[in-house]
Design a protein that fits this description.
The complex is a heterodimer.
Chain A lengths: L1 H7 L4 E4 L17 H13 L3 E6 L8 H14 L3 E4 L2 H10 L5 E3 L8 H11 L3 E3 L6 H9 L4 E9 L10 H6 L3 H4 L8 E6 L2 E6 L2 E6 L15 E3 L2 E3 L7 E3 L4 H6 L4 E4 L6 H20 L8 H10 L5 E2 L9
Helix pairs in contact in A: 1-10, 3-4, 10-11
Chain B lengths: L8 H9 L3 H14 L1 H4 L11 E6 L4 E8 L2 E4 L6 E5 L1 H8 L5 H6 L4 E4 L1 H12 L3 H7 L2 H12 L1
Parallel strand pairs in B: 1-4
Antiparallel strand pairs in B: 1-2, 2-3, 4-5
The chains are: A alpha/beta, B alpha+beta.
Chain lengths: ~325, ~150
């Protein structure tokens, strides 16, 4: 339903995953079986939009065929592209389905044009999603030196800055996105109201304790508050959302091919609100980039949906650089 | 946006004094009659046999039930999953005006118990197509639901 909502509200392309750990959002009840995927594709294609399949986890040796099977299914269903992180799987796709369009996932952690061009030369990738660790001038440097389309994150929860290489979730639960397709698996998460506040725990490890009326965040280790040197604070990262609406004219001017917005594990209500704002903003920039300023109404709408207390421009904006 | 009155506290405290079973029984009977025909095609397998509680805080209502292949059934055991919110927030959720994560992070929606079960319920409900659902609801209820979603 979120796919339909995204398309109805103006998304040019929507990501989906199959119902297993071949994608990094392997949550119970989420994602698409083959019939649902076909229905989603039909809905998108009838309206001139695209569907991209996230196949962005790393295959495990004993279940390699699950990943290659997913590539085969993607080709059979007519996915507009598959987004991959594993080089072995890319090789499989190129050999067996040369017509299938390949994108490099953020989980591949390519941050330089040399890395992006390597994937281009060896596997013919046509687009790369850059990790959220680069500043805008660094992004521009990549864009200028590669024929590969570049896709950037625009809105959503921020990860700790080791994208594609983070093992924090495994530390507590034995499962993390690259191997198990999930960060903080729901079965390991506990929420509990206590006299001291709302506690979130991951496999028994206390992540945070929220005071009455204090906004809560995703139950991930990177966003917990911990006691370090006698002080309790966000020792790894503060829970904030990325919101790059302010940078949109610059991003489009440097030739960014697509803006990526978090939505795959979110409800239709969120998807509708966020997609509507970004569609309107992108159209406004295309009409008049010089005169673009995000309207207060857009910002208010996005702030309401942000995780944590605030939003940030992330690493894109580093004035001290 | 919906502008619903807060339920009068006196009335809420009266409802609160009723034993839990009659409201749970009434809820299950009504839900089976009105909603089940529209919901039964969903994949209930991972959810059936588990115990649920819906607490409507401002109404003092505590609805406890389980789901079977034949529909909802009242239950008085310890719930595996308890979802609490105000009547207004439940309506905002049902009419898809608000996102459950947003309500949860802003502490308006409280989920206690089995987190994985809660996520499965959320994803099941998110996958519902409201238009198809409306067509399968009894007419008066479909009318109310449509008004809520358009509000």
């Amino acid at each position: 339903m979120s796919l339909k909502t995204a398309i109805d509200n103006g998304a040019d392309a929507v990501y989906m995953g199959f119902r297993d750990n071949t994608n990094a959002r392997a949550f119970p009840g989420l994602n698409f079986d083959e019939a649902q995927a076909a229905e989603g594709l039909r809905y998108a294609h009838d309206r001139g939009r695209k569907v991209l399949l996230a196949l962005n986890t790393y295959p495990q040796t004993d279940t390699w065929s699950r990943w290659t099977g997913a590539v085969d299914r993607a080709a059979k269903l007519g996915m507009d592209a598959v987004i991959l992180a594993d080089a072995g799987l890319m090789r499989y796709a190129v050999k067996n389905h040369p017509q299938l369009r390949l994108h490099l996932s953020v989980q591949g952690s390519a941050t330089s044009y040399e890395a992006v061009n390597f994937y281009r030369e060896h596997f013919g990738i046509q687009r790369a999603v850059l990790p959220r660790v680069l500043s805008l001038p660094q992004v521009e440097n990549v864009v200028k030196n590669t024929p590969v389309e570049i896709e950037l994150f625009g809105f959503g929860g921020l990860c700790v800055m080791v994208e594609g290489r983070c093992l924090l979730s495994s530390y507590c639960t034995g499962e993390s996105p690259n191997s198990a397709g999930v960060c903080s698996p729901a079965k390991a998460v506990q929420w509990k109201e206590t006299p001291a506040g709302l506690e979130s725990r991951l496999n028994g490890v206390l992540l945070d304790r929220y005071g009455k009326d204090e906004k809560a965040g995703y139950p991930t280790l990177c966003k917990g508050r911990f006691e370090v040197g006698g002080e309790t604070y966000y020792a790894i990262e503060e829970p904030t959302s990325l919101n790059t609406l302010d940078l949109l004219p610059e991003m489009l001017k440097m030739g960014i091919a697509a803006i990526k917005i978090e939505g795959r594990q979110r409800s239709p209500a969120y998807v509708a609100q966020v997609t509507k704002v970004w569609r309107a903003a992108i159209d406004a920039v295309k009409k008049n980039a010089a005169g673009f300023t995000p309207t207060p109404a857009w910002m208010a709408e996005l702030n309401k949906l942000s995780e944590g207390q605030s939003h940030t421009l992330g690493a894109y904006h580093r004035p001290w650089k | 946006m919906l502008n619903l009155p807060v339920f009068p506290p006196l009335l809420a405290s009266l409802v609160n004094k009723l034993p839990a079973t009659p409201p749970s029984l009434m809820f299950s009977l009504a839900a089976n009659q009105l909603l089940w025909p529209a919901l039964k095609a969903l994949d209930w397998q991972p959810l059936s046999g588990r115990r649920y509680a819906i607490r409507v805080k401002d109404l003092g209502l505590n609805l406890r039930f389980t789901v079977t292949p034949r529909g909802f059934s009242p239950d008085s055991g310890t719930p595996d999953l308890t979802i609490s919110a105000t009547a207004r927030d439940f309506l905002l959720l049902l009419s898809r005006k608000e996102d459950p994560d947003t309500l949860f992070f802003s502490r308006r929606l409280v989920s206690e118990g089995d987190t994985e079960l809660g996520l499965t319920v959320k994803n099941l409900l998110d996958a519902l197509d409201p238009e198809a659902m409306l067509r399968r609801l009894p007419l008066p209820l479909a009318w109310v639901a449509q008004r809520l979603m358009a509000a």
